[in-house]
Amino acid sequence: MAKDKKARVDDLRELLRVAPGRQVDLAAYDARATPAGPQKKAAGREAIAAMGAELAHLQERLYAASTAGDRRRLLLVLQGIDTSGKGGTVKHVIGLFNPSGCRIRAFKQPTDEERKHHFLWRIRKELPEAGEIGIFDRSHYEDVLIVRVHELVPKDVWSGRYDEINRFEQSLADDGVTVVKCFLHISKDKQHERLLARLDNPDKYWKFNPGDIEERQHWDDYQAAYAEVLSRCSTPQAPWYVIPADRKWYRNWAVSRLLLEQLRELDPRYPEADFDVAACRERLLAERS
Amino acid sequence: MAKDKKARVDDLRELLRVAPGRQVDLAAYDARATPAGPQKKAAGREAIAAMGAELAHLQERLYAASTAGDRRRLLLVLQGIDTSGKGGTVKHVIGLFNPSGCRIRAFKQPTDEERKHHFLWRIRKELPEAGEIGIFDRSHYEDVLIVRVHELVPKDVWSGRYDEINRFEQSLADDGVTVVKCFLHISKDKQHERLLARLDNPDKYWKFNPGDIEERQHWDDYQAAYAEVLSRCSTPQAPWYVIPADRKWYRNWAVSRLLLEQLRELDPRYPEADFDVAACRERLLAERS
C-alpha cells in the first residue's frame, strides 16, 4: 500500500523543491531514492517516453505564443558534481523536445575574455529568447562552487555572490523567464563506480580527466558548497530541486516530470490569427479558378 | 524488378547531388519522386528510425574526437521556399541527434545591425565549432534569393555574391567544415495545399503569413533564382543536393541518409587516452582499501 501511494505523483515540484530559507544538509538526502513516480527502470523509461509527445506539444505552444508577443521562456539549470549526469540529462530529456526551440549552453572553465568580465556576463549572453527552452549545463553557480572550493577568488568576493545571484534570477523572473534549477545529487560511491566505468571502456576515455580523481579529495567541501547554494539560493521565483541521481532512469524521469509540470502551469496558447483567415483562404482558392 | 532496384541505396549523395558546373532546370526535377530507398511512408519512417542509433553514435564520435584536437565538423544548410519543410526537417532529422552537439540557427529577415555588415557577417558568427553539427534554416543563400527576386540590392551587388559564396565555402572546407546543402524541392501545387492546411487549423495560424500568398506571384522568379544557385554554387567542396520534398517522409529519410553517408565517410574516432589508464584505475581502487 505504501508503494502504491509512493507511485502517485501530483506535484513532483513540491516534493523535490528546497523550501526557501531551509538549511540544507545533503547527508539527509538519499541519492538512490525514488520518492514518487515509477519505481523500476522499465516503468521509468516507459513513463519518460509517454511524456514525450506532451512535452513537445507544450514546447510548440510556447514557441507559437512568442510569435504573437508572449515573452515567456523557460531556463533549466543543471548542476552536479562530475559524473552526476548533466550531459546524459540533456541527451535523454532535452532530446524529447524539438531541437530548434532549445538553446543549450555548456559552461566550461571561463576563457581569458570571460575572466575579464563580471561572472554573470557570459551567462547573460546565453539566455533563452522568448518562446525558447534554455538549458545550462553548469552555470553561474560555478562561481560559488569550484571557485569557492579552490579559493579562485577571495572569500569576500564569492560570499557576496549568493545575493547577487538571487537578484539576477529575480530579474529573469520579472522578464518572463521561468527558472528551474536541478541539482543532480549522486553519492560518493556512485561517482567512484562511474569513474571506474570510464576507465574500463576505451570509448569513454575521452570523458575521463585524471583531475576528477583529485577533485574527489574535495568531496566534502563540494557537498558543503552545494548545501550553501541550496540553502541560500532556493527562492520562490527560482527554486532549487534536489534530484536523486544515482539511478539514471529516475533522474531522467524526474527532470522530465518537473519540466512537464512547469510547462503545464505556464499553459502557453496558440495565438489567434492576426489576419483575415476567410479572405486569405478565398485568395488562395481563387488561384485555381 | 525495377522497384527492387530502385529501393537499393549505395550512395544517395551521388544520386541527388547537382554535378558541379551543371546547368539546372528545376522543371526537370519531380518533387514527388522517390528515386532510391523506401517507397512508402511506413517503410520510410521505419528506415529513419533505424538510422537513429548510428547517427547519434557517429555524432558522439565526432564530438569525442574534437576533445583531442580533431577540428572537423558538419554544416547542414537547408533552403527551400515557404512550406518546403525546413522546420520539419530540423524537428524530425536533427531530433535523431544528441541536442547538445547541435548548433541550430534560423536566419530570418536581417536585423538593422546585420544589414550594416557584409552579408556573410551574421553567418560567420553562427558556424559550428569543432565536433559539432551545425544546422542553418535558411542561410547566406537568402542574399541571392529573396534579395534577387525583390531587388533589395542592385544586380551588380547580388550577382557578385555567387563567387563570394563559393570562396567562403571553400574556406570553410579548408577549415574542416563538411558542408551539406539541401534544397527542399516542392511543387507549386503542394505549397498551395500546405498553405490552405494552415488556414484550416487554428493551431497553425501562427505559421501563416498573408505575405506568403503574394510571394506565390513570384514563384517562377524564385525557381529561376534557385536554379541559378544550384547551377553556380554546387562545388566539389560544398555540393548542393536536390531533395524531393513533396512527401515529408521521403524528405526526412533522404536528409537523414545524406547525413549518415557523410558521417560514415568522415569516420570520426574516439581518441586514445592521453593519460595513464592503469595508474588512474589503481588510484581509484586504492581509495577503497
Automatic annotation (TrEMBL), chains A, B:
GO biological process, one term: polyphosphate metabolic process
Keywords tagged on the record: Kinase, Transferase
Origin superkingdom: Bacteria
Boundaries of every Polyphosphate kinase-2-related domain copy: 40-266
Pfam (any one): PPK2
One MF annotation (Gene Ontology) recorded for this entry: polyphosphate kinase activity
Transferase among keywords: yes
InterPro entries: P-loop_NTPase, Polyphosphate_phosphotransfera, PPK2-rel_1, PPK2-related
Record SUPFAM superfamilies: P-loop containing nucleoside triphosphate hydrolases
NCBIfam families in alphabetical order: PPK2_rel_1
Database matches in PANTHER family: POLYPHOSPHATE:AMP PHOSPHOTRANSFERASE (PTHR34383:SF3), POLYPHOSPHATE:AMP PHOSPHOTRANSFERASE-RELATED (PTHR34383)
Name of the protein described by the UniProt record: Polyphosphate kinase 2 family protein
Species annotation: Streptomyces coryli
